[in-house]
TrEMBL record:
This is Patatin. It comes from Coffea arabica (Arabian coffee). Residues 90-281 form the PNPLA domain. Residues 438-464 are annotated as: Disordered. The nitrogen atoms of the two glycine residues in the GGXR motif define the oxyanion hole, and stabilize the oxyanion that forms during the nucleophilic attack by the catalytic serine during substrate cleavage. The keyword Ribonucleoprotein does not apply. The gene is LOC113696099.
Length: 464
């Protein structure tokens, strides 16, 4: 009996010791896992050696282990060369340059793509899958991504730049610079201008996925004009001329969908969403019909174009007018989106996300020769052109986790040059790869019945 008791005690002790060792291993594994997560999130740590020594613990008995799941026909093992990346272009509202900085950035980007690809007819729309733009940025997106009669974009980037410079101030939002362009463009004139450019073309006539925001006063919520929604849902297709009028409106304008099912009173996209980058990313990640293989930010390539920050100080005194506060709020919102998006990219923020923005205030009268000062008084558009050029020559600014922002060695122009190489590389990969493309855009088919949209965008907030 005593021997049996000893044997039982020994077995129990051995079992307890084994359980303790297992618990210690599990605790150690848990600590290691949280350490890896912490390092990857906080510091972008991605060294495979760090995880190679982790203990392998099988807590499922072999007899009850679940069978291996059958490989999905879209699993990553069928993508030996990678899945490719979705390319996103995002353009801010007017800012201090009323869209000129972004327009110049796009002209430089397109010229670089033409040179590097060896194709003089290359267009920005050829190298992006999604274009989002607010305010003046929405005008640029519409000009560059709406299909013309020849099946190509209506405007080249250089033509879009000339359009913006010629019409500077005509599509000013409440965030337009007070010291440069105070003129408010009347809705009737805006309608005539956009109608002349776009005619009867609608959201369905865009070449790629296009997202343009406004603020719907009727629902008290942002509304996102979306090509995907226009193709799939009743009441969501609008004339491009009216879309442009809505996203740049400095006061309420009425518009309705082409089928008359949706009506709204809209004000400018710069009020609702001065930086639409986050909305564009959310649209891609949730639209599995058009972007079926996009799992996270690592599958995105994004360039976000700013339009310069406002000069809120006038003669060392702060202008406390309501319009000034609207400008400050717009700049602050755009910066917050940039910071959040940069942090969301984590370890990929240096390779997959680029932000082009004016760093501080440039183009003041102290920076411009006296001969140009007289010209500026007569031609504020010329001043915007000078300011935008100076901003492009500035050092690029990147967001740093928990540390605000830092200047990098590259200028904004050099960053655009580098980014052109990135999107061109993706374009060449798609031509030679046997892998399914990362983007499957819907095509306009008037005869097909409308379906419920799979795209999760802000338009759902406005009953669309």
């Amino acid at each position: 009996m005593a021997a049996a008791a000893v044997s039982t005690t020994t077995t129990t002790a051995s079992s307890m010791l084994h359980q303790l060792e297992c618990n210690m291993d599990v605790d150690k594994l848990t600590c290691e896992i949280f350490s890896i997560l912490e390092n990857k999130f906080l510091f972008g740590y991605d060294d495979p050696k760090f995880v190679s020594h982790l203990p392998k613990i099988n807590t499922t008995p072999p007899a009850t282990a679940a069978p291996a799941a059958a490989a999905s026909p879209l699993s990553t093992k069928h993508f030996p060369g990678g899945r490719g990346k979705v390319r996103i272009l995002s353009i801010d509202a007017g800012g201090s340059t009323d869209g000129v900085l972004a327009a110049k950035s796009l002209a430089h980007l397109e010229a670089t793509l033409c040179r590097k690809s060896g194709n003089p007819n290359a267009r920005v729309a050829d190298f992006f899958d999604v274009a989002a733009g607010a305010g003046a940025g929405g005008i640029l997106a519409a000009l560059l991504f709406t299909r013309g009669k020849d099946g190509r974009p209506l405007f080249t980037a250089d033509e879009a730049l000339k359009f913006v410079l010629h019409n500077a101030g005509k599509f000013s939002s409440p965030s337009a610079p007070a010291g440069i362009l105070r003129r408010v463009f009347r809705p009737a004139k805006a309608e005539k201008l956009y109608g002349k450019v776009f005619g009867e073309l609608t959201l369905k006539d865009t070449l790629k996925a296009v997202l343009i925001p406004c603020y719907d006063l009727g629902t008290g919520a942002p509304f996102l004009f979306s090509r995907a929604d226009a193709l799939e849902m009743d009441g969501c297709d609008f004339k491009m001329a009216e879309v442009c009028g809505a996203t740049t409106a400095s006061r309420a304008v009425g518009l309705r969908s082409t089928d008359g099912r949706k009506k709204m009173a809209a004000v400018g996209g710069g009020v609702a969403m001065s930086n639409p980058t986050a909305a564009a990313i959310t649209h891609v990640l949730n639209n599995k019909q058009e972007f079926p293989f996009c799992k996270g930010v690592e599958d995105l390539i994004v360039v976000s174009l700013g339009n310069g920050e406002m000069d809120c100080a006038v003669g060392n005194h702060w202008n406390s007018s309501p319009v000034e506060y609207v400008r400050i709020a717009g700049d602050g919102a755009a910066d917050m989106v940039d910071q959040a998006v940069s942090m969301a990219f984590g370890q990929w923020r240096g390779s997959n996300y680029v932000r082009i923005q004016g760093n501080g205030i440039v183009g003041k009268r102290s920076h411009i020769s006296s001969s140009k000062r007289d010209d500026d008084r007569k031609a504020p558009k010329r001043k915007l052109d000078i300011i935008a050029d100076q901003m492009l020559e500035q050092k690029n600014v990147e967001s740093v986790l928990f540390q605000g922002k830092k200047l990098v060695e590259s200028t904004n122009l050099e960053k655009l040059e580098w980014f052109a190489g990135v999107v061109l590389k993706e374009q060449e990969w798609r031509k030679t790869s046997s892998v399914l493309p990362p983007v499957i855009l819907k095509q306009s088919s008037p005869s097909s019945p409308p379906r419920s949209s799979s795209a999760t965008t802000l338009s759902t907030l406005s009953s669309c």
